[in-house]
Structure formats: structure tokens, C-alpha cells
Amino acid sequence: MKFFLDSAMTDEIKYALEMWDIDGVTTNPRHVQVSGKPFMTVITEIAEIFAGTDKPISVEVNPHLDDWTEMVKEGKKLAAMSPNFVIKLPATEPGFKAVFELAAADIKSNLTLVFSAAQALQAMRMGAAYVSPFIGWKESNGEEVTHFVDEVTAIRNTFGFETEIIVAAARNARQIVNSAVSGADIVTAGMPVFRDSFAHPYTDVGLGKFQAFWDDTPYE
Ligand code: E4P
């Protein structure tokens, strides 16, 4: 299973790459705004971090676009900037069509804002390289998410689609594990969730106990 960092903060991304060998990055307009840098500056900096690797970086088209031809035009412009860029498009009617057209031009896309298995199925049919079911937002809305991811992976596996499933907006380590058990290919999460998935309070408690025993024991 692969892990993408959901961030546009270059210091976070560099840290996560060095410490955890993350497999890629997903960005969205909120992440870019939080970075405090212009869109083009921040995506260029992220591309430089991953230059020479095959790790994907999802970059989102202008979310105001509602014409698929404009989405394709912007997607092609972004894709020309870096071989690592994957074009993130919304799960709207023009977004699906843009995915199809970009796939025909051999440009990878990531269908984002996916909240139903039917949307995920259509993303796969239209040739999306990645599909991003948003579990955190869905769960906040009081909806069940484990069965949702199960359905998306079952559809992909049954019909042999090549689309990789990115479980997005994971909020805790349990959701990461559930996604792995469901057979999702990738989880994308922010830095705090990522960090928590390596930790457990008992590890710290146990380490403290062992340190005390160590200190009470002669070395030789
Ligand atoms: C995924 O690709 C999205 O960028 C992301 O998961 C959105 O959710 P969040 O920013 O609320 O975590």
C-alpha cells in the first residue's frame, strides 16, 4: 500500500519524503492557500522536490472551470510542467469528460471529490489513473465509509480497471488500516495523521519503563 502526503507545504513534504519515503503528494486549493505562496510557485517547488523520481504529485485545476475543454487545456498546461504531475479534476460532468480526453492524450488524472461508488465507477470507466473517495468528509456527514471503500475496491478488482484508489481525507490511523484491509492502493493524509500512524501511547509508556530498568542495571 502506498502513502501520499496531502499537503502543499514544501518543508512538510521534504520531511515526509526523507523520514517516511512517501510515495507521492496530493494537493488541493486549500493546501496551496495555506502554503502562503502563489499556485504556480508552490507546484513548481513541489515538482523540484520530486524531480527524477516517478512519484506522482496531484495538482488541481482551477475549481471554477465548468467547461471540459477549458479543463483539458489547463490540464495539458500543468502536465507539461512536470512528468510527475497528475491532473486533479472534480467529479462533475465536465470533470469526467476532461478525464477521458486527458487519458486519450496519455495524461494521468485524479478524479477528486468522489463521494459515491457510482462516481468512482464512472471515473474508472473514463480512464482516470487515480480516483479519490473522500472518506473524512463523508464520515463527518454521518455517512458510513468502510463499506464505501469496500465497494470501490470490489468494482475495480471485479472489472480489472487500472485506476488506483486513493482513500482521501483520512483522519486517523484506524481509517488507514481499514483502507488497507479494504484493498485500497493508496491513502493520502495530512502530516498529523501520518505521524500518528507510526505511534501508540503504549510504545512511549513501555519505552519509559525499559529506560528505568536499563538505568538500574549495570552495563558490564
Ligand atoms: C485529497 O486528495 C484531498 O486533497 C484531501 O484529502 C482533502 O481533504 P482535507 O483537505 O479536508 O483533508
Supply the number of structural domains: 1
Distance, first to last CA: 44 Å
- CATH architecture classification: Alpha-Beta Barrel
Average pLDDT figure = 97
Number of helices: 11
Task: List unreliable stretches of 5+ residues.
Answer: none
Query: β content, as a range?
Result: 15-25%
CATH class: Alpha Beta
Q: Rough shape?
A: globular
One letter per element, helices H and strands E, the order comes to: EHEHHEHEHEHEHHEHEHH
Furnish the topology, listing elements before pairings.
Layout: E1 2-6, H1 10-20, E2 24-26, H2 29-35, H3 39-50, E3 57-60, H4 68-79, E4 85-90, H5 93-104, E5 109-114, H6 117-125, E6 130-133, H7 135-140, H8 146-159, E7 164-167, H9 173-182, E8 186-189, H10 191-196, H11 201-215
Parallel strand pairs: 1-2, 1-8, 2-3, 3-4, 4-5, 5-6, 6-7, 7-8
Helix pairs in contact: 4-5, 6-8, 8-9
Erythose-4-phosphate is lined by residues 6, 26, 28, 30, 112, 132, 136, 168-169, 188, 190.
Would you kindly provide a brief summary of this structure?
By secondary structure, the protein is α/β, with parallel strands linked by helices.
Q: How would you characterize this protein structure?
A:
The chain is α/β, with parallel strands linked by helices and about 220 residues long. It has a single domain, classed as Alpha-Beta Barrel (TIM Barrel), CATH 3.20.20.70. The chain contains 11 helices and 8 strands. The longest helix is centred in the last third of the chain and has 15 residues. About 40% of the residues are buried. The model has no long low-confidence stretch (mean pLDDT about 95). The structure holds erythose-4-phosphate. The site of erythose-4-phosphate has 11 residues, from loops.
